[in-house]
Specification:
mainly alpha, single chain, 3 strands
Length: 279
């Protein structure tokens, strides 16, 4: 099983788990009369939806016969939609935490047993969100990256609820600190979603490919390889991972391209019969 297949497999398992966690939080919110916990349940549902979008697209892509451009557009739209769902979910969460922070209301007191239960729930969710963390090295396959970014957004909010559950075991009104923590991590989660939207817009405009080619040319010049490694253009500037056509017979050039590919998550295809692209 490849890394990509493992990510898809674990995501298929995690979507229903996210729904169950959301239901569990909603039930606990009824027992504790905690609206804060209910808001966290809604966020978990949003995260489940955000995971479902790229997963469903990945599964559909494997069943349908699509052209390269159709498949690319379908993946890019799913990536953008995932970013929108994450951003909206995080902003709703952020608004509630800002209210808690300003009004110092919504203090949560769960008691020892419920507090430990909620902490266990959120630690479990945090562990779930950490699955595939090693593949978070931006492999630049849109759907797999979208899944990992969703896991990151989930982990950020899990930290807030874990802190809230643990603070509830001590006396006092902790709404100020809970709200502040929610604002910080909610903002970070919103930034995750917004960064996905902005990133895909840059890719669609060809700015991402332009930036990678500029970096590649700069690195080649620094390594004195500009005369032995020729860039012949990109296969599709709107597709991820970015595929760059090159021509080289230099061993140092080949070694450089291999290292650059691993570090910048681009692919190189050697073509001996094409003319170098103009700089």
């Amino acid at each position: 099983m490849t890394k990509e297949e493992r990510v898809v497999f674990f995501t298929k398992m995690s979507v229903p788990v996210n729904v169950l966690l959301a239901i569990g939080k909603a039930l606990l919110s009824l027992f504790t009369l905690s609206f804060f916990l209910f808001v966290n349940a809604l966020y978990s549902l949003g995260i489940g939806l955000a995971k479902f979008v790229p997963l469903n697209t990945q599964l559909e892509a494997g069943k349908k016969t699509l052209s390269a451009s159709q498949l690319r557009d379908k993946k890019n739209r799913a990536y953008t939609l995932t970013g929108v769902v994450i951003a909206v979910s995080a902003l709703v969460y952020l608004v509630y935490c800002a209210r808690m922070f300003i009004a110092k209301s919504g203090n949560t007191s769960y008691g020892t047993i419920l507090g430990i239960t909620i902490a266990a729930f959120t630690f479990g969710e945090l562990a779930l969100a950490s699955v595939g963390a090693k593949t978070m090295r931006r492999r630049h396959e849109p759907l797999l990256e979208a899944i990992q970014m969703t896991n990151l957004a989930s982990a950020l909010i899990s930290l807030v609820l874990t802190q809230t559950a643990l603070l509830s075991l001590s006396e006092g009104n902790h709404s100020f600190y809970n709200g502040l923590c929610g604002i910080i991590f909610g903002s970070l989660a919103a930034c995750v979603g917004l960064s996905m939207i902005i990133r895909m817009r840059l890719i669609e405009k060809g700015k991402y490919a332009e930036s990678k080619l500029k970096t590649l040319r700069k690195k080649l010049a620094e390594e004195n390889l500009s005369e032995s490694v020729f860039l012949l253009g990109c296969a599709d500037v709107k597709a991820l991972p970015l595929v760059i056509y090159v021509r080289t017979e230099d061993k140092n050039g080949e070694s450089f391209l291999k290292k650059f590919s691993e570090r910048h998550a681009v692919s190189f295809v050697c073509e001996q019969d094409r003319e170098p692209a103009s700089s």
